[in-house]
Known about the structure:
This protein has 343 residues and is α+β, with helices and mostly antiparallel strands.
Amino acid sequence: MTPTIQRAALPLAPLATLLLAFSTASQESVLSEPLPVTRVVDGDTVYVQRDGGTEKLRLLSVDTEEKITGRPAISPTKPETVYGQESADWAKRFFADLGTRDEPAKVRLLFPTRDEQRDIYGRLLCHVILMDGRDFNVLLVEQGRSPYFNKYGNSLLKHAEFEAAQKRARAKKLGVWNPATNEPKTEGAPAAKRPYDRLLPWWQARADAIDNFRKFEAAGTAISADDPDALAASLRDHPEAEVRVFGEIHRLYREKDGTLTAEFRSGDRKRALRAVIGMSARAEIEPWLQATKEVFRQNFVFAEGRLEKGPRGLYIVAAYRDQWKLGGPEPKALMEAGASGVK
């Protein structure tokens, strides 16, 4: 049984993408003063003027389709689409219409916690609140310009609003939910479409795993693998205790001595947590961990073991299969297809 982890509330480290959604700490939202919009890139990327400089925003819980640039797709799940371009053009007009010839549109930024967070690209993670009080993030989902993007956790602020907005948009077949969206005008011509029938169950399974972690974290019985300060504090204060860590596996390394090293995904690679798997258990654990790295699978895991400090930083000794568990269920679509799951 994993003991309660006694640790002080610590600030989150820079997270791999939008992983501030993991934490339940410091949940007191903050609304900024009105800020001028200086540039709109696409449906979910906006720049504002703040404190004498320019801030690039990454809007939380939304993910509009990629506009057409002609560059190779960054991921098979994020192709450049005609509707992505249309949404980018719409967003530019939307904010232009909110301003005047002499003064740009102004917005407020809503942060889920007292501590402002950024992704690894330096973008400020927030909701954009229009001066009439509407939440632009929710508006994107309401109009079908974005799905409710909970790949990195359900919204800490407006989960129910996002779910309701998406339900209405799907019922009305708006935007991405319209079967005609991104269909080629010429029959038989190639067209890029985002596979929402597979993406939504995958994102939900990941969100379920993060909800599991939030419960453990609130009880003091789990730590994010992407929180090196909390891990270090746990080792310092309770060097003999076992801990439960939660995260995604980034890479697997076969060591010369026959052991396996699993590196957890981290916003700070230099401080990434590693797990050490013994040679005797490697054959069983390695394919299991490899499967968690696949798209459309449950990517989050819990590992239980003792923390140690080595030449490459902190690692957890989780050498046996029963020390590893999935963070949550496999995506519903995968289970319905009859694929063999992992526990």
